[in-house]
């Protein structure tokens, strides 16, 4: 994918604020701090178009980015962030669920997991929720630079088993640090967006 333009469109908290267009879109979900915003930056060759932080809970709204005047990438808040109140968590949960369940142009959800760890209970819940509602989903295992290449397949296997993925389903290994998996991730995105 050649990135000709990247525009930040809006930071939304409710559906009335979502861009009112029929362009296809892909959203990123995953635990807080897993690297959703970093992946967006890496994919777009931008340093900080999506705001990144070493502290979890950085992204708190639904951020729409328009790419090449052609499609949207959507950065969602992470789940599983312990340091917010129960009511705040519920509010975020509702905001994310409303987006995922009602967004017409949404072509696919990319679920990010940390390659180093078995998916959490919440990761499993998210994966099952997406599958239950028949949302096309792909899993990317990120932070691959944090373990040696020889360990990747072993960790991918644990991720597939824990999420209960089908045997033939793919997990794409990725690193926002080194760019490994970027071309493959674009191929995957393009397939979802333009078929
Ligand atoms: P929330 O907005 O809180 O949901 O987090 P997020 O999923 O958007 O994570 P973010 O992209 O802000 O990254 C969190 C931290 O992980 C930052 O310190 C990033 O630099 C780091 N990080 C993200 N991806 C990678 C990666 O592939 N490799 C390494 N080594 N660090 C990464
Ligand atoms: Mg973020």
TrEMBL record:
The protein's UniProt keywords, in alphabetical order, are:
Cell cycle, Cell division, GTP-binding, Magnesium, Metal-binding, Nucleotide-binding, Septation
Cofactor(s) required, per the database record: Mg(2+)
Please give the superkingdom of this protein's source: Bacteria
Stored PROSITE patterns: G_ENGB
Q: Does the keyword Nucleotide-binding apply?
A: yes
> Which Pfam families does the annotation name?
MMR_HSR1
Please list the residue ranges annotated as the EngB-type G domain: 22-195
Q: Which PANTHER family match?
A: ENGB-TYPE G DOMAIN-CONTAINING PROTEIN, MSS1/TRME-RELATED GTP-BINDING PROTEIN
The family note in this entry says: Belongs to the TRAFAC class TrmE-Era-EngA-EngB-Septin-like GTPase superfamily. EngB GTPase family.
Physiological role: Necessary for normal cell division and for the maintenance of normal septation.
Protein name stated in the entry: Probable GTP-binding protein EngB
Q: Which organism is it from?
A: Fodinisporobacter ferrooxydans
Gene name of the encoded protein? yihA
């Amino acid at each position: 994918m050649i990135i000709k333009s990247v525009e930040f469109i809006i930071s939304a908290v409710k559906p009335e604020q979502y861009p009112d267009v029929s362009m296809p879109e892909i959203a990123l979900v995953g635990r807080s701090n897993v690297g959703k915003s970093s992946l967006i930056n890496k994919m777009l060759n931008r340093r900080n178009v999506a705001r990144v932080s070493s502290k979890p809970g950085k992204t708190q709204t639904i951020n729409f980015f328009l790419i090449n005047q052609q499609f949207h990438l959507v950065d969602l808040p992470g789940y599983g962030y312990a340091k917010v109140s129960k009511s705040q968590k519920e509010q975020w949960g509702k905001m994310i669920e409303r987006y995922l369940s009602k967004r017409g142009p949404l072509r696919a959800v990319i679920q990010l997991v940390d390659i180093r760890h078995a998916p959490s209970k919440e990761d499993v819940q998210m994966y099952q929720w997406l599958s239950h509602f028949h949302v096309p989903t792909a899993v990317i295992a990120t932070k691959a630079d944090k373990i040696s290449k020889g360990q990747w397949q072993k960790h991918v296997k644990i991720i597939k088993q824990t999420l209960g993925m089908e045997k033939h389903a793919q997990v794409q290994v990725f690193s926002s640090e080194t760019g490994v998996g970027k071309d493959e991730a674009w191929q995957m995105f393009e397939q979802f967006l333009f078929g």
